[in-house]
Amino acid sequence: MAEHPAYPVGLRLTGRRVVVLGGGQVAGRRLPALIAAGADILLVSPRATPSVEAMADAGEITWERRPYAEGDLADAWYALIATSDPEANTQASAEAEANRVWCVRSDNADAATAWTPATGHSEGVTVAVLTSRAEGRDPRHTAAIRDAVVEGLRDGTLVAPHHRTRTPGVALVGGGPGDPDLITVRGRRLLAEADVVIADRLGPRDLLAELPPHVEVIDAAKIPYGRFMAQEAINNALIEHAKQGKSVVRLKGGDPYVFGRGMEELQALAEAGIPCTVVPGISSSISVPGAAGIPVTHRGVAHEFTVVSGHVAPDDERSLVDWASLAGLTGTLVILMGVDKIGRIAETLVAHGKPADTPVALVQEGTTAAQRRVDATLATVAETVRTQDVKPPAVIVIGEVVTVGVATPASGLPKTPQ
Ligand SMILES: C[S@@+](CC[C@H](N)C(=O)[O-])C[C@H]1O[C@@H](n2cnc3c(N)ncnc32)[C@H](O)[C@@H]1O
């Protein structure tokens, strides 16, 4: 008989009896999806792996601790036959056939009446990849195709625009510290779907080069602001493009709410009645020290870290930072936007009692190919910045954590430069 291709279908199993025979690794792999589908699951097996047992303990499945017996499939809509006894599998398979219950078999795909596809999920869609015929079945290949599709959808390299659900509006996307791999999956997907991208100078600018030609990319720093403040001009640009029915991404460095003016933009959009979503990003305050081998906390060394803006000097009346209190903390101080004022900041901390030999590290352009780390102490940092020509953007770390790093052997895994 000619072998026809399998017919793909999605089973809606909510409240419907599914019988699983065998409580081993196969059941352990398949049960979570059956539970997620809302099936009424009966497991028949003398033994079960600890993870399957945990599902029974949690009340997610009913477990009868015994071998398969004829009649077990009487009420089933669907069966998974996966015992370690080939004879029992054959008998159960015959019962399934007689009762017209679709069944998968772990030991013999040829004898099964259904096959489990390799599945993955992305944004409310299930991607299921099925081999067409028993002959030449290659489960690793189907899994690889599933991975390629799901990964592509997640990271935006495979673009599948949302025609029904996509609404015009703005996404404030935290792009991470600069390495294009350090944006979130959601951020990357929204970027891939955007009509207009308004980008900061910091963040993963390499991603902009990958956008299709129809996408309008606007440099936030270059928006003319005339009688407005620069930020107002950016807000207006976001509102205007969204009002034209476009999908707008505001791509920001790090996290939108860490010295990123994200809430100001959100407020302006809310006032204009524009729908807006905020996508968190990896903040440079943690990731840039980390990329340079500095943990912001370390057991026995620092039990807190404080992230501070250094954009105004300590004696500036606009400063909202209590430098005297910060000098009294024993944990890590992380200063953003502080390169220009680090001399005055260091003096102030020392004047309020922080030891002058407290270690300091400046990490410039962290996570990018140009990353550079320069070490100093509070006593020497001003001079070091001058002589070493440290330039923004840089994250400044003050505290003993600066000295705890170790040189790690190359792992072969992709990672940000150290
Ligand atoms: C306006 S703040 C924005 C911070 C951002 N929202 C975040 O969460 O990382 C800009 C400052 O962040 C720091 N910064 C951002 N990206 C950096 C990077 N790749 N390397 C070093 N410092 C960076 C610098 O201190 C820079 O002056």
From TrEMBL:
The keyword Transmembrane helix does not apply. Pfam families: NAD_binding_7 (PF13241), TP_methylase (PF00590). SUPFAM superfamilies: NAD(P)-binding Rossmann-fold domains (SSF51735), Tetrapyrrole methylase (SSF53790). Gene3D superfamilies: Cobalt-precorrin-4 Transmethylase, Domain 1, Methyltransferase, Cobalt-precorrin-4 Transmethylase, Domain 2, NAD(P)-binding Rossmann-like Domain. Transmembrane segments: none annotated. InterPro entries: 4pyrrol_Mease (IPR000878), 4pyrrol_Methylase_sf (IPR035996), 4pyrrole_Mease_sub1 (IPR014777), 4pyrrole_Mease_sub2 (IPR014776), CobA/CysG_C (IPR006366), NAD(P)-bd_dom_sf (IPR036291), Siro_Cobalamin_biosynth (IPR050161), Sirohaem_synth (IPR012409). One of its GO terms (biological process) is methylation. Residues 170-381 form the Tetrapyrrole methylase domain. CDD domains: SUMT. Its EC number is 2.1.1.107. Keywords: Methyltransferase, Porphyrin biosynthesis, S-adenosyl-L-methionine, Transferase. GO terms for molecular function: uroporphyrin-III C-methyltransferase activity. It comes from the Bacteria. PANTHER family: S-ADENOSYL-L-METHIONINE-DEPENDENT UROPORPHYRINOGEN III METHYLTRANSFERASE, CHLOROPLASTIC, SIROHEME SYNTHASE-RELATED. Belongs to the precorrin methyltransferase family. This is uroporphyrinogen-III C-methyltransferase. It comes from Streptomyces bluensis.
